[in-house]
Design a protein that fits this description.
Layout: E1 7-15, E2 22-30, E3 33-34, E4 40-41, H1 50-53, E5 65-69, E6 79-86, E7 89-96, E8 107-116, H2 117-133
Antiparallel strand pairs: 1-2, 2-3, 4-5, 5-6, 6-7, 7-8
Length: 138
């Protein structure tokens, strides 16, 4: 298992539906490169599930999103991550879920990344602290 990946996060401004309304969301970075996908927007405070990101996920419905569908529904056509804690490592397997209002299919293995547990947990906790500071849910 490669342990060279480094997780981070950045804030990014984006336009959801109304061009006059600029929002700010979060984008995860891997090895200092933003984890971005076409037709998906950054996570807003209420989209981030730090609790799920700090535990091994078991059922697909528990997989937290790392990018949201532009339709605005949380978990709809989102890019989700299967989180697996193994000893001192955390393994991410990215997958794409199906949108209820669009024709799309489940695509697994959009990417696999391995992080050192200590560095990973520090990043997730710093994101949780940021969301709490801003008054978001988590």
């Amino acid at each position: 298992m490669n342990t060279n990946n480094k997780l981070g996060w950045i804030k990014k401004q984006f336009i959801e539906h109304n061009p006059d309304e600029i929002k700010e969301g979060y984008v995860f970075t891997i090895d200092d490169k933003p984890l971005e996908f076409s037709n998906f927007q950054p996570l807003e405070d209420f989209d981030v599930n730090c609790f799920a990101l700090l535990h091994t996920t078991h059922d697909y419905e528990e997989f937290p999103p790392v990018a949201c569908c532009t339709c605005g529904c949380i978990y709809c056509d989102s890019v989700r991550v299967f989180v697996e804690f193994i000893d001192n490592k955390v393994l991410w397997t990215l997958c794409h879920s199906r949108c209820e209002t669009k024709e799309s299919t489940m695509v697994s293995n959009l990417g696999k990344y391995t992080f050192l547990k200590e560095q990973y947990c520090q990043v997730i906790n710093s994101l949780s602290d940021e969301i709490e500071k801003r008054g978001g849910a988590n």
